[in-house]
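Handover notes (outgoing to incoming on-call)

Open items:
1. Peptidase C10 family protein: sequence verified, structure written out, both below. Nothing else pending on this one.
2. Nothing else urgent.
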Amino acid sequence: MKIITTPPPPPRKYLDILSGYFTKQVFGLLCLITFSCQEFEPIELAADLEKNDIHYIDIEKARIIATTIEFPLHTSEKQSQLKSTKVNFDVEIFGNKNVKESKSPLGKGDKALYHIINYEEGGFIIISADDRLVPVLAFSFDNEIPLSAEDDLPEGLIDWFSTQEEIIELIRDNPDAEINLEGVGSPSSSINLWDPCAIQRQVATENMSLTDPCDPGGGCEDQFTQVGPLMNTTWGESCGYNQFMPLIQCSPQLCSGRAYSGSTSVAYGQIMKYHSHPNFYNYNNMLPNTGTIETATMMSDILNAFPAQHRLITCFATHVSQEANFPIVLTNTFNYSSAQKGSFNSITVRNNLNQNRPVILFGTGAFGRMWVTDGYQRTVFCETGTTHLKLHMNWGWDGDGNGFFNFDNWSVTIDGITYSFNNNTFMIFNIIP
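Peptidase C10 family protein structure tokens:
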């Protein structure tokens, strides 16, 4: 765990450009930048929406934010710049990224809910289309989110998108809603999370500054903590992982004509690989991002450890029923000393991750999708005591969409009634070999 409280201000270039985003003159010039392969609202529609909704953030504004945020550069790019400048290799190099493609899913009234942006250099960012929420809903330094079709997305990520839609539509339907971060108070009451400096530190890394250069008078410093990501695996459910799954007739035909290994097998498997437990598998023969015979064997064993009446295999997915006793499979079949099931609790999740124990998350429904959280970023804003939390999600979909996501971070109060989110998420925690 690392807590960062001291650092240099973000680059002047970043502050100048992004601050300009708040003025129409500079914004008009920046909108002339063109990007390929992108889906967004027509300019006329975006202008009308902005006129009628002062909180609306259109795709052009989202692009400006996305291209002025500074990210740590990839290793090869970083080393070449360090060598050319003769800088010590311990120094982190940051830079801007270019937009590769974007997509803006629409909600009521054809208003964008959020903007998904993939970068040419790798990585993605998801920016809220309403400025009453934090700007950066999720991000990754390296991975992408498939934008071709919803079917290409892991179900856990689809659930997360549904929750964001629920939050955004709720506050748009209730203009007087009070939006609260975890902790005390409302972000809009005392701290502007859309300030250029605040946006930059929402994609902070352990080497980035949290001292606010927009406050020349100094003052208190925010606290930033990052744990993980703990796992190095990006496993999936299909080719290479399903070699010992049942044959199944589907159209189109699945890889090797066999069923998917299933999200439960992938989540359990990645946890078992991380702990190298139980000891009756050869974990050296399991690769980080490619399926092998040993990996496929373990995944098949995991599925078969659940009673037949709790397994469902179709052409679309392989599921385990919510009625199954998930912890007992780990403790009885795979010799773990501890595993517990409970409703999602962010404090419990953070405590587990602080002890280097990834946690399995899954949704409700007869056959809920499973995934693993193996890290988090948490910022405590010193002025208010409010907290901004992102969990690192490994969706079990060959690395697609893996990244840091807002989770259990908001509540909305309307007419004295408080609505919280992610209440329908469960977890398997205290997983100890």
